[in-house]
Amino acid sequence: xxxxxxxxxxxxxxxxxxxxxxxxxAAAQQPAPLPPGSPLIGRPDTADAKKxxxxxxxxxxAAADKLPVDKLKAPKGFKVEVYASGMPNARSLALGxxxxxxxxxxxxDKVYAIVDKGGKREVKVVASGLYRPNGVxxxxxxxxxxxxxxxxxxxxxxxxxxxxxxxxVILDGLPKDxxxxxxxxxxxxxxxxxxxxxxPCNNCMPPEGYGTMxxxxxxxxxxxxxxxxxxxxxxxxWHPVSKEMYFTDNSRDWMSEDLPNDELNRMxxxxxxxxxxxxxxxxxxxxxxxxxxxxxxxxxxxxxxxxHAASLGMKFYNGNSFPAKxxxxxxxxxxxxxxxxxxxxxxxxxxxxxxxxxxxxxxPFLTGFLDNNSYVGRPVDILVMKDGSVLVSDxxxxxxxxxxxxxxxxxxxx
Amino acid sequence: xxxxxxxxxxxxxxxxxxxAQPLDARLPTCFACHGENGTxxxxxxxxxxxxxxxxxxxxxxxxxxxxxxxxxxxxxxKGLTDTELQxxxxxxxxxxxxxxxxxxxxxxxxxxxxxxxxxHRCNFCHQANYAGQENVxxxxxxxxxxxLKALRGYKDNTRxxxxxxxxxxxxxxxxxxxxxxxxxxxxxx
Lengths: 414, 189
Prior knowledge:
The structure holds two protein chains of two kinds.
Chain A: H1 7-23, E1 78-84, E2 90-95, E3 101-105, E4 111-117, E5 120-127, E6 135-139, E7 142-146, E8 151-154, E9 168-171, E10 186-187, E11 193-197, E12 212-216, E13 224-228, E14 236-238, E15 245-249, E16 261-267, E17 272-273, E18 279-280, E19 284-285, E20 303-307, E21 311-316, E22 330-334, E23 347-353, E24 359-366, E25 370-371, E26 374-375, E27 379-384, E28 390-394, E29 399-405
Parallel strand pairs in A: 13-17
Antiparallel strand pairs in A: 1-29, 2-3, 3-4, 4-5, 6-7, 7-8, 8-9, 10-11, 11-12, 12-13, 14-15, 15-16, 16-20, 18-19, 21-22, 22-23, 23-24, 25-26, 27-28, 28-29
Chain B: H1 2-16, H2 23-34, H3 53-64, H4 71-77, H5 82-93, H6 107-119, H7 122-125, H8 144-155, H9 165-170, H10 175-185
Helix pairs in contact in B: 3-4, 3-5, 6-10, 8-10
């Protein structure tokens, strides 16, 4: 794959998908015919489709000398290296004032801290015994941790890394649904904590309150719902200039190999509805819940991120060491598909954001996690460091990668 | 009788502090509950034979780290190293699969369950013969009461999975569906 050949495929994937669907053999093999009008009619029940299953992450971290550093590729002039390893299921990232990198996990019970001591990095466990602590955020010395159904904090965490107290719960009683129940957490420009209550299913009419973006004050009070129709977002950030919120959203499974695309959304006002489960990718009414509705009722995405690609963490690049074209553009970690025969994603892409806030072309940034239709790593979240380098977490290897520009050797350039 | 037996085993466990023993010393206790050759004779205790190693390793890790709470299992897995978890999973994967229920099945119930399985794609991840793969457990020939307990647990969020896949699947299923699926799966070879 070359550096310039990829952008089109992201956008065109949907079109190709329609053609493929037409060629799909009818589901004639089913011994028990479905009743007329069943939403399940037309779903593939072929031997090939049955090979598709979620790809489970290993519960232990890859050994430092087994990390696939030689597989990863960045544009010419960039260097890719291991920042830290040995953190099973490393997921969301947050940066402390004193340079500590905090790392959440989803399948395990721990939050890690990476401490940089003169270039040598040490990994510590700062919280354990948690339940799906996927979300981490940091503000004014305090680490915030979002578990499945509660939000907690540890004050002055960077002064207590060797002996941290148990997190203090500041908000609990959120739904305990496991499906899309793990949460991303980030602090907005208004100093509020943002998170989503995901849809508790693949594709359903979610009960009231689900599929919503929420925000609370830093003490956990004053919860508000600010957006609806979001199936499962696992990454958001705010534009450095316009202060508008942008977020990824994972679209539904099992509609087609090549539809619908994941979304990159932009919130321009409180109260917007982003379509799920009625309309996906801004122009595709759902085959079960789209009847009687119009896609024009909902706020469309600003970019399509590929079908089943699992677009997770995203950050505006607000550092100073990358070339000027990266400034205020979005880096998106695509975890990679499972519900698709020829996998896509397993990379970090750059979404160009125009002056008016809309999206331009998408191009690859860090690739190689997907190797011969198998994963050698899976990127989850992005963090821009103070020196302008970018960290990328990888829950497959339990590691964090560092991409830097303009210094040292430029290994593995495309 | 059976519950007495389990009670005695558990009492023995506590007395001998399984948490301090190496894997080999614990294995007889495993099979005391899960049955000789890993085929369970006790209500709601699963058979283990022929489970995929990835699945068993992950479940043992979840028991050890208390991500999944079932007290006797949390005690049994306590203190085991990652290597020992892997070894236990390897041993279990080589045991014979459990023998399915061999009565004359109710054809209508089997057909209802077969349709449910197709609609909800049980036969995708668990495979057409329900032998499981990687992190997806073997279901064929599993104890009917255990299958029912597990499905109900996923529905009310008391059974914690490694990932949330089963919670998604059971979202649209009702308790009567679980009863039929458990009946069907316990009768698969």
